[in-house]
Amino acid sequence: MNHDVRLLQEDDWAAFRQLRLLATVEAPLAIWPTREEEARRTPAEVRERIAPTALHAVFGAFAGTDLVAIAGVRREPLAQVAHKATLWGVYVHPAHRRGGLARRLLSAACAHARAQGVLQAHLAVNADNPRALALYESLGFTAYGREPRALRVKDAFYDEVLMALPLDDAASFAALG
């Protein structure tokens, strides 16, 4: 199936919200908010969250008119840390996995960040998610640390691997495809 990848706009808020709610149930170890926390966001909050600005953007992959995958990127406005951005909320609907959508979304998010002057992309991934770790490593991300007990789901704790990718290095950036 062919998927269109594009920058989300405020009008995509309902589709974004629906996919995020699914993610909280289907992949609670990968998404920080609980379903209840995500459901409490008002339409105005969701619109603001996905509206592209100089500091953040959310990309989506569409199967026809259905939003089936998302990835966000954000950076701080402070001069001494504006050279780096954080990738967040990477999620692909289960029916659309293993087709390269996460790779395409991450590539779009990193290209967008690079165009904004970002020199390094960061992310955190559940240490117990070998598929996600392998994807990020295949894109050139390298681990630089591990946050113990970063996520608590019910009574279980999970570590997150902290990873980075230099965007100003042509070889590293080329790995994104």
In the CATH hierarchy, the third-tier topology is known as: Aminopeptidase
DSSP helical segment count: 6
Mean pLDDT: 92
CATH superfamily: Gcn5-related N-acetyltransferase (GNAT)
Strand content: 25-35%
**Mass-distribution shape:** globular
The CATH class, by name, is: Alpha Beta
Number of domains: 1
Give an overview of the whole structure.
32% of the residues lie in helices and 34% in strands. Helix 1 packs across helix 3 (43-50). It has a single domain (4-174), classed as Gcn5-related N-acetyltransferase (GNAT) (Aminopeptidase, 3-Layer(aba) Sandwich). The protein is globular and about 40 Å long. It has six helices and seven strands; from the N terminus they run βαααβββαβαββα. Strands 1-2-3-4-5-7-6 form a seven-stranded mixed sheet, with helices on both faces. It has 177 residues and is of the alpha+beta class. The mean pLDDT is 92.
Quick structural gist:
The protein has helices at residues 13-26, 35-39, 43-50, 101-115, 130-138, 170-174; strands spanning 4-7, 56-63, 66-75, 84-92, 120-126, 142-153, 156-166.
Descriptive keywords:
177 residues, alpha+beta, Aminopeptidase, 7 strands, globular
Q: How are the elements arranged and paired?
A:
Elements: E1 4-7, H1 13-26, H2 35-39, H3 43-50, E2 56-63, E3 66-75, E4 84-92, H4 101-115, E5 120-126, H5 130-138, E6 142-153, E7 156-166, H6 170-174
Parallel strand pairs: 4-5
Antiparallel strand pairs: 1-2, 2-3, 3-4, 5-7, 6-7
